[in-house]
Amino acid sequence: MKNLAIVLLTVCIGFSASAQNDVVTKLFNNYYDDENFTKISVSSKMFELFTNIEPGDENEEEIIAAISKLKGLKVIAADSIGNSKKLYGDAVNKISKDGYDELMEVKDAQEDMKFMIKEKDGIINELVMVVGGNKSFFVMSLYGEIDLKKISKLSKSMNIKGMEYLKQLDDSESTNKE
Amino acid sequence: MDSKKAEALLRKYWEGKTDLNDEKELKKFFLTKEKNENLPVDYFKYISKKAAYNPLGAEFDTEILNLIQHENNDKKHKNFSIKYWYIAASLALVVSASIIFKNEIFSVESPTEVVEMDTYQDPEKALEETKKALLFISSRLNQSNEYAMQFSKFEQNQNTIKQK
Q1: Which of A27, A45, A73 to probe the B interface (max B CBs under 10 A)?
Q2: Mutation target vs A (from B94, B96, B132, B134; most A CBs, 10 A cutoff)
Q3: CA separation for the pair B50, B31 (Å, rounded)
Q4: Nearest 5 degrees, angle CA A116-CA A122-CA A124?
Q5: Which alpha helices (H) appear in chain A, and where do they start and end?
Q6: Choosing a second label site near A103 at 20 to 30 A (CA), which of A50, B16, B70, B89?
Q7: Is the pLDDT of residue B92 over 90?
Q8: Among A85-99, B32-46, B66-80, which stretch is predicted with the lowest mean pLDDT?
Q9: pTM, rounded to two decimals
Q10: What is the end-to-end Cα distance of chain B in Å, rounded?
Q11: Nearest by CB to A42, which of B100, B119, B142?
């Protein structure tokens, strides 16, 4: 009888643990009705549709190639909330407890940023980025077969004003230091 | 019974060959006799007295047996009720397990519904937003990489300074 109870308990715990697999989905759901947060969700069906879109230019072609193996995207974003740092800490905590591996972390005066991945057999199946600024909070999750090189190449090859500006700033700073 | 017969019976008695009737007769015979050194009058008087002596009462055996019977029944009853409790407890466990299981399944199902719900119905617009998101991730990835590069450069520089 005791054994039966133990087995049942383990089964219960097992189910409750396995049921919490998708922590980002849970986070997404938590903020679903909160108007302070912008939520964007793109399903796998939509990603399938993207491959049918005729690319307008080279850049778009590159992007479509980069997302051809993706299966979903979820974004939670807020830019004027008070407890953003706490939300960041909670989210990072929850995500790292859920079997995600940390890819990298950047902390500076303005914001904390963390990339986490789920990997299987050398293929990244999920990439989660969490950003916590002074008043901003941002979680983005990408599903599917993720090629980090392709993704990081995107912004380099495309002309992104703000980021280019940042990049230039960083470059000049680093050259000054050197 | 005359004394000769009694003597024969007595011999038989000592040899352990008498039956219950013989013994009854022997007792009866000796109870009427006076104390006699040649005959075991006292002995027979003693055992008849002993047989009659029953301080627990005639009902004692039946009472004890009843009690034992009763206790056995109680034990059976107890065992039964313990078994019943085990069954009830395991049933409760199964029920609560299934409730937890069901709840968890539902709580997983509802978010997947959300996931499958597209924010944008128009693929062009969805692609536009996906682009933005990807570029954002891309630029942040590069930014972090650059930080890392800077640190490694910084470390290299530090090392060269130390070497000098």
Answers
A1: A73
A2: B134
A3: 13
A4: 35
A5: 2-19, 23-30, 44-50, 58-67, 84-97, 148-157, 161-177
A6: A50
A7: yes
A8: B32-46
A9: 0.53
A10: 139
A11: B119
DSSP structural state of residue A100? P
Nearest to B134 among A12, A52, A154 (CB): A154
CA distance B99 to chain A (A): 10
Tell me which chain B residues have a C-beta less than 8 angstroms from the C-beta of A45: 116, 118
Residue B141: CB partners within 8 Å, gap ≥ 6?
Answer: A115, A148, A151, A152, A155
> Tokens 């778009």 belong to which residue?
A60
Angle among Cα A74, A118, B122 to the nearest 5 degrees reads 20
> Per-residue pLDDT tens for A40-94?
888 888 888 887 877 777 777 777 778 888 888 888 888 888 888 888 988 888 8
Residues B64, B65, B70: CA angle, nearest 5 degrees: 95
ipTM of the complex: 0.71
Nearest to A140 by CA among A155, A132, A128, A150: A128
Measured CA to CA, the distance from residue A156 to residue A158 in angstroms comes to 5
Nearest by CB: A42 against B93, B118, B150:
B118
Could B133 and A43 be called an inter-chain contact, meaning their C-beta atoms sit closer than 8 Å? no
- The answer to whether the Cα torsion of A145, A148, A149, A150 is positive or negative is positive
Q: Do A67 and B130 touch (CB under 8 A)?
A: yes
One-letter amino acid identity for A40? I
Task: Provide the Cα torsion B127, B133, B135, B139; round to 10°.
Answer: 180
Q: Give B85→chain A minimum CA distance, Å.
A: 11
The token pair that represents A115 in the structure block? 């990339």
Which residues in A129-168 are b (16+ Cβ under 10 Å) and which e? bbbbbeebbbbbbbbbebbbebbbbbbeebebeebeeebe
CB contact under 8 A, A16 and B100: yes
